[in-house]
Amino acid sequence: MRVLLIWPNSRNEVLGWGDLGAIAEPLALEYLAAGVRLDGHEPLVLDLRLHPDELEVTLGHFRPDVVGVTGFSMHVLSALRICARVKSIRPECRTVAGGHHATFLPEDFFEPQVDFVVSGEGVAPLRALLQALEEGREVSGIPGLWARREGIFESGGTPPPLDINALPTPDREITAGDRHAYFIDWMKPVALVRTTVGCPYRCTFCSLWKMMDGRYLRRDIHQVVDEIATIREQFVFLVDDEAFINGRRMRALAQALREAGIRKRFFAYCRMDSLVRHREVLREWREIGLERLFVGVDAFTEKDLDEYRKGMSLALIEEGFSVARALGIEIFAQFVVNTDYTRRDFQRLVRFIEHHRIHYPSFTVLTPIPGTELLSTFDAVTACQPNGRPNWDLFDCQNAVTRTRLPPAEFRREYQNLYHVFKGSYTQYQEHPFVMEREVHDGDVGVLTSRMPERRGLSGFETGRRAQGELKWMSA
Ligand code: B12
Ligand code: SF4
To answer: Is residue 4 a contact partner of residue 67, using CB atoms and an 8 Å limit?
Structure first.
């Protein structure tokens, strides 16, 4: 069967900056493609982030029997539109939705234009679905797959626990034509590799531990090394939910990579306590090419650390910054902006970042992502669709979708201002598209000013101002 696998594009007109900050390898689709190939099906990936106008032409040329669409919550409504378009052009084509949102709230896809929904890991259910369709059998009882029975969606049951080592190696050939374009900030082209999945921590705003029922699955190290050996890109992002939890394993992986003669420019998620605890392991990773870590600092007050159940103290966070500095590893620090922030909290956050000389801060608004305790009901959600369900378009973690203590417009202004203040951090990477896009929308820049020292001896704010000129010139 011909299987078209689609990654939806974000709606820039709705979202803060949509796909401008990153368009990374569609790893989920590459796993699915590898899986369906095992049974002799013909997969094709269409990445609408790079080819927003190619749905119709691809449907015409490829004539898929099945279309699968992936998505985070912010893609739900786009995915539904894509399925509707598919049905209007090829009514005989079956549509399947899957991904993070479908895992927790499959009912958002129980719409006429969707035939099947996959919750959780997708390779096994998709293969079983294609087999049933090919054999003309009734589609029911496939674990992880929702299918209609007498017009009502019904679950095929809970899948057995995932065996991460049994998954196929992602099919990177299928994205060969697009690979040069995949980027995250300064990393271009970038490849993504998953070596573990799940996390033993229990942060309230995070769905990842729920997704794996609290389990932490590790891939065989030699399998990981063999996969990385096939990757041509220099930049490799380990997309493990928290890569450095197990120091012994990560040391063994570093050694195995070294023995295999593999040297990449690595980037990975890491908690501050893992960094402090496993600093010697991180040193080994530094030696084999680890350049930066994406650290969810998330909060700068004990109150928020407790509220988010981070299981970490401010003192440990501060120690983490000095350990990273001593190791020569750059920290990309993620902060969750609490919706209860006052103006003073925004100012204190800026001071915290300046004080710790954080080169690259990034921000998300505290968002009740599906699967988290924050979204046990929709009562707190202020941004809704006419049908009463949340307006998923706005769930990009850059919009407040619940009540804010500040009036909404003021909260938004203060939030956007964080990016203005630290603009210099982003313009270190001159071609950062976020900056280019933001020139168009710039409002009141510099309500707060940054004293953060910059590489070129300018403050973050000044660097941003100077870069504005350069970028205007570049885009002229
Ligand atoms: C790497 C990553 C990123 C990268 C790159 C993502 C990319 N490819 O473009 C970056 C850093 C850019 C990023 C950004 C964001 N991310 Co992110 N990211 C991840 C992370 C850590 C790994 C994603 C991944 O590749 N996983 C590996 C693949 C193989 O697993 P998978 O996606 O689950 O796919 C499997 C199944 O879901 C299923 N499946 C998936 N799709 C389909 C489709 C079909 C048809 C079928 C049958 C099955 C199926 O089968 C797949 C194979 O097993 C996940 C966490 C996680 N554990 O997945 C968060 C995650 C996906 N991100 C998340 C979020 C919120 C974001 C941001 C919105 C946050 C922000 N504002 O900063 C942005 C969005 C940016 C954008 N415009 O796309 C959330 C999404 C939650 C939600 N419900 O929306 C996650 C789950 C993290 C979390 N905290 O909960 N992210
Ligand atoms: S935020 Fe990070 S540390 Fe917390 S549960 Fe999620 S993956 Fe684990």
So the answer is: yes
**Alpha-carbon span 190 to 187, nearest angstrom:** 6
Indicate whether 17 belongs to any domain: yes
The model's pLDDT over 367-389, given as tens digits with 9 standing for 90+, comes to 999 999 898 889 999 989 999 99
208 lines ligand 1 (CB under 6 A): yes
Tens-place pLDDT, residues 19-58: 667 899 999 999 999 999 999 999 999 999 999 999 999 9
Same structural domain for residues 328 and 402? yes
Closest ligand relative to 3 C-alpha: 1
Query: Taking Cα atoms as reference points, which of 186, 255, 270 lies closest to residue 224?
Result: 255
Band the pLDDT of 359: cuts 50, 70, 90: confident
Q: Is 105 in the pocket of ligand 1 (CB under 6 A)?
A: no
pLDDT at residue 437 greater than cutoff 80: no
Same domain, 59 and 183: no
DSSP summary character for residue 218: E
Indicate if 419 and 358 belong to the same structural domain: yes
- CATH code (residue 43): 3.40.50.280
**Mean pLDDT on 403-411:** 97
Give the ligand with the smallest distance to the CA of 126.
Answer: 1
Instruction: Report the pocket of ligand 2 as residue ranges, CB < 6 Å.
Output: 199, 201-203, 206, 208-209, 241-242, 271, 296
pTM attached to this predicted model: 0.92
Name the band, by pLDDT with cuts 50, 70 and 90, for residue 18.
low
Q: Number of structural domains, the chain? A: 2
Residue 350 CB–ligand 1 contact under 6 Å: no
Residues 150 and 168 in one domain: no
CA distance 112 to 80: 10
Question: Is there a domain that residue 216 lies in?
Answer: yes
What gap in Å lies between CA 289 and CA 265, rounded to an integer?
5
Residue count of the chain: 476
Q: 55-96 pLDDT, tens per residue?
A: 999 999 999 999 999 999 999 999 999 999 999 999 999 999
CA distance linking residue 335 with residue 349, whole number of Å: 9
Instruction: Mark 189-216 as b/e (b = at least 16 C-beta within 10 Å).
Output: bbbbbbbbbbbebebebbbbbbbbeeeb
Cβ(425)–Cβ(452) below 8 Å: yes
Q: Quickly count: other Cβ atoms within 10 Å of residue 176's Cβ.
A: 10
Domain presence at residue 469? no
The first and second tokens of residue 11, run together, are 């709606």
User: Does the structure show a pLDDT above 60 at 441?
Assistant: no
Provide the β-strand partners of residue 197.
Answer: 217
**Alpha-carbon gap, residue 12 to 20, rounded angstroms:** 8
pLDDT band of 469, cuts 50, 70, 90: very low
Could you tell me if residue 471 is inside a domain?
Answer: no
Task: Provide the pairing of β-strand 183-184 with 22-23.
Answer: antiparallel
